[in-house]
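Batch job 17 of 40 flagged for manual review because the log was empty.
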Amino acid sequence: MRQGYLLWLVALLAWVSPGASFAQDNTFPHGPVDMPWGRVEAEFHAGGDLAIIMLRRPDGQSTPLVAIDSVSEAIAVLDDKRLAFAWPALLAWAGEDLTRLRDRAVVRAQVAAQAGLIVLQPSESEQYVGDRRLAASLQYARALDEAGQKSTAIAFLKGEIDQVPEDTGHSAQRVFLLTRLASVLFDSGRTSEAIVLLDKGLADQTIDESFSVNLSVNLASYLARTGQSQRALTVIDSAWALFGAAPEEDAESYKVPSGEAYFASIKACALSGLGRTDEARAFIRRIAIVPPSRLTSASEPAARLLAFTCMHDVGGLANEIVTQIGSAEPAADVFNSLQPLGSGYPAEVATLRSALALLQVRRATEGRLNILGPEFSAALNKWSTSAASGAR
């Protein structure tokens, strides 16, 4: 199970307003859901600022499938036709266009950031922060970004960076803030600024090398995605060597479960950009095929999708979608990655749309993937008026 998920869930339940309660009778929405291991009954509950889809196992025990506290989590439910029983109640609670949920998430994250509390489900990177106040700041920046308040998110992150002492003892804090700022800049279409920011971070001698590898990985990804393949290859090779030399048991190690999947994914993209397609595909084969799940921290599914999308390999991406959709648990992250109206680097969005149009993909996703319509376009694009620009 994702690190920190259970602790976060307990804290989030405590955050629900005192007057709110979850339905205790059979009037709440429910229905059968097909899981990879069999069919179970699922239930949708909403109270205050939290909604949850629970799985009721044959032995009577309940397991949380997805806790909905942000727009991205709500979209994950709307993406999956197996969870259609919950859609009407979800939209009544979150708002037909999800703006009600968006606004609540921003307010809660802002208050929590001031108090150093974690109130939103941690993102993949936030799970490994190890500093509650920093994690709270990162979640607030994420909430702002997802709400379309990118300029506010950028200003907030710059302010947080300015407050962190410039010494090696605070390397981790600075790296997490720099990579989050670079992500917001890149997704806002300010790709050059994101790359320059990471370059400056790597040149900063007060950031410990063991943490700067995270800057290198993000830099290599942005370089590969913007067609700067040769430099991307150089950066990712250097970062991978440093990553491989780090001790597994080091208490301050930056290694995370299945982290090398992203190294292989970025290297595959860089090699493809240099015309070395066979080598690129060999690196993708090094990434294990793991069923997408909400309950694990495995990076492999996202890394494989990223590789094929970044390579603009329509056929390879189509085969990967078929494989992942066939084994994915409901509301797994893969569903959010397959929305053609979603935000993304233009050339990558074009590749995705081409793959989704293929007959084999349409057949595989039938009954599972719900392609969201224009009414959700704003939410899918994080209420942004500008998309990432510059097709490769």
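Reviewer: the log was empty due to a logging misconfiguration, but the result itself is present. The first helix runs from residue 5 to 15. Unflagging and moving on to job 18.
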